[in-house]
């Protein structure tokens, strides 16, 4: 997996480094030392002694040793008639030898090999830290089998078995707590280092750490399907998909390399013919141009920045599933939020129950019975209230649930509905409007013939919602809220939070249509929702962000970007990170182009030597671009909104 960024840079390293790893191994060091010594003695022999032939042979050996991978790749490319960067460098080195400049020819190959290696190493660093996500989960687990505790490899633990987790242990597999209790540090997955209390019935995840208590966990997923493994797999996949900028650079290079060769040919012929420049000198300048033209720095600039951004985000509990998503967020000017469960906690409370010709208890009993099969936050609130009042639920038949509308079913001989569709107008209307005016979500409980009751619920706005919207505005991002709830509640929430635009009373398909309209009006649209109720709108938007997705595989699957923790401030973090990534990419591409053009101009005038071209125009530039890209993952600029700590690795460890 550590090969993604390099694999995507097809121009630079197509095949060059297919087998060598980014980790410095002994063999590689030995090769560098041997080649370096050959080069040194060769240069000494040629310039400081009279053993020119021996010196030339030493330099040839140095060239072959340090350029062996590159020369192989160049040969393969030429056979397939593809002009890769390897071809450019090989031509330049061979040319230097042919025109009697073996010291420079060998130096070019040597420096190039070192540059190549350093790039690999730096790029690999970002990727390896994704692999480190996986290593957070321990390789073994303590399982209770036949009454005794045995330690076995995590692959051998079956779903349904019970694992024992002691204080300080990292939980080995995803599961449900069946006994014991502890606070658990979930930073590995959520990026949030404040521990969460876990007791019987709570979900726990592989890679998270049991702090002080003892837990018995019934395993619910095999190790390969654990949340952390999926996150790592998805991030890995994301790193492999090029973003639009990268695709552009790759396409550009296809015409670029042959173009450069043509330009070099012109430079070799025109000055001697037109201006009387010595022929060998003209060839030399053309070779310098070939080296300068190496688009390595350009090609590597974007993937490294992207990988750096994606990796940092993953360590902060934000799973970005594609480089294009990261780039799109950085460019978006509008952010669309779903209301319930995204800007509000979604933990509704029943405030009022009102009956029309029916006792309140019966209204609640009918509603709770119907809602017993729905997973909507409204349903949960109604069930909870009924539970508190000790109401016994009735059997429901012919149950139907309609997204954005409500539920219907038959109890005994009659059909009832709970939701927002009103069969007719009636005495309930004024009460309904009064409750709505209080900012409550009101659902109607009805029969075929009319409304028999109202249930009013209140939701709580998330603490961070207002600050997040303000932070987005400060970045010039317009905020829009979509809700299936009524207009009055919607507007009240939007005003409180400071949302710019609000559209209420929308059915799920109308939310999708709204997202489409916003895309027409504003270009790139990022939609933030809970990922379950809002899946269609998330899918339709340019980028769908699912909040609080930990524990919901469906949400992790559905969205382009997944925020593990249900913490709205992470959205502002995500935007800051994306903007920083996009700006680093821009800086890298611009500076690479400017420096290359500058050096190329000097080369045409004969002011740059071959080895300088490699050291500055290729190696130096590539390294500068990589160093800049790694900045994305460092503190400053894109710091976390809520808690100030920016983990290069993870918070709190
Ligand atoms: P939001 O856009 O705020 O997330 P939804 O689209 O999930 O809201 O639901 C919109 C409206 O549909 C709710 O305000 C409610 O009136 C009605 N509704 C949806 N599901 C249910 C349910 N299970 N019980 C009662 N009403 C429901
Ligand atoms: Mg919703």
From TrEMBL:
Localisation: Membrane
Keyword RNA-binding: no
Keyword terms, alphabetized: Membrane, Metal-binding, Translocase, Transmembrane, Transmembrane helix
UniProt GO cellular component terms: membrane
The UniProt record lists the keyword Metal-binding: yes
Matching InterPro entries: ATPase_P-typ_cyto_dom_N, ATPase_P-typ_P_site, ATPase_P-typ_TM_dom_sf, ATPase_P-typ_transduc_dom_A_sf, ATPase_P-type_domA, Cation_Transport_ATPase_IB, HAD-like_sf, HAD_sf
Pfam families named among the record's database cross-references: E1-E2_ATPase (PF00122), Hydrolase (PF00702)
Domain P-type ATPase A: 136-236
Taxonomy, superkingdom: Archaea
Signal peptide bounds: none
Transmembrane segments: 29-47, 83-100, 255-276, 282-300, 593-614
NCBIfam families for this protein: ATPase-IB2_Cd, ATPase-IB_hvy, ATPase_P-type
PANTHER family to which the protein is assigned, alphabetical: CADMIUM/ZINC-TRANSPORTING ATPASE HMA2-RELATED, CADMIUM_ZINC-TRANSPORTING ATPASE HMA4-RELATED
Family: Belongs to the cation transport ATPase (P-type) (TC 3.A.3) family. Type IB subfamily.
Name used for this protein in its record: Cation-translocating P-type ATPase
Originating organism: Methanoculleus receptaculi
